[in-house]
Design a protein that fits this description.
Helix 8 packs across helix 9. This protein has a domain of about 190 residues: Rossmann fold (3-Layer(aba) Sandwich). Helix 1 links the parallel strand 1 and strand 2. The chain is about 40% helix and about 25% strand. The protein is α/β, with parallel strands linked by helices and about 280 residues long. The protein has a nine-stranded mixed β-sheet, sandwiched between helices.
């Protein structure tokens, strides 16, 4: 039974029933945040793609997961129509209630379809899969954004994608109160545009191409799989593969990203309720 003072978080599961570590990471971070801050938080998972489940506007915050497949092929689908009906409703609510905004975190696949739907960048298939523990570079705006300002530059994160966002419409993003926060590793000797890794769409809605919910345990399981090991070695070499495994033990790399980004998102979303809580 929902208590009057309870904070409600909707977790939008876009994995379409595929086994993943993302949902475990999101749930674990919400539970840990609730315990650390002494808040009465409940979350509910919605199977968006398989069951067309979409939450209503009674939730206080929304976290939308990564997922498999093409972010282009689902355009016009029933689940997407309902999904963006929710996003439109959240944006409308936030305009009407500027002092009580509902915050949204979009991860990987969710980030890609959001950029495509609202025409904020070009979504395209990569020349090859990007998978592993990768450096992510902050823009000037990213250096000061509350989600990332305490992280190193570059910060380190888990990347797992076949698609990318390039050519962000900066003018449109900034007109809505947003900013480009992070990009791929800058490599001037390679004639490829750097993909976008994070955008703040406005004060309450932010997205990451990488997986801030990923932890060392889940990533180690993936890297030890033969198919993932082969993928990394073929693209980056065996030395880089072992470096990625070693990075998992580094407290300044994905362990720090995991402990920072999602908890900081939740702090921003519930800052009014945290004002009386000792952190």
């Amino acid at each position: 039974m929902i208590q009057e003072d309870q904070i409600k978080i909707a977790v939008l599961d876009l994995y379409e029933g595929e086994p993943n570590e993302g949902m475990r990471g999101i749930k674990q971070l919400i539970s840990r945040f609730a315990t650390d801050c002494g808040l009465n938080i409940a979350y509910q998972v919605f199977d968006v793609r398989s069951k067309n489940e979409i939450p209503d506007l009674t939730f206080d915050a929304y976290i939308s997961s990564g997922g498999p497949g093409s972010p282009l092929d689902s355009a016009g689908s029933v689940w997407e129509a309902r999904y963006f009906g929710l996003m439109d409703s959240i944006k409308s609510h936030n305009r009407q209630h500027p002092d009580n905004k509902k915050h949204v975190l979009l991860i990987c696949h969710s980030f890609q379809i959001y950029c495509r739907y609202y025409k904020l960048g070009v979504v395209s298939k990569r020349k090859s899969t990007s998978f592993g523990v990768m450096p992510v570079h902050k823009t000037t705006e990213g250096m000061h954004d509350p989600l990332f300002r305490s992280l190193n530059d570059p910060l380190w994160a888990v990347d797992s994608r076949d698609y990318q966002i390039t050519q962000p419409d900066i003018e449109k993003i900034e007109a809505e109160g947003g900013a480009l926060l992070c990009i791929e590793k800058f490599r001037p000797h390679i004639d490829l545009e750097r993909a976008v890794m994070s955008i703040r769409f406005n004060e309450a809605i932010v997205g990451t191409q990488f997986h801030p919910e990923a932890d060392a345990i889940g990533m180690r399981m993936y890297l030890l799989r033969e198919d993932k090991k082969t993928l990394v070695i073929e693209k980056h070499g065996e030395k880089k593969y072992w470096e990625m495994l070693n990075h998992l033990n580094d407290p300044d790399k994905i362990m720090l990203t995991n402990a920072t980004v999602v908890p900081r998102f939740l702090m921003l979303a519930f800052r009014n309720r945290l004002s009386s809580v000792t952190l």
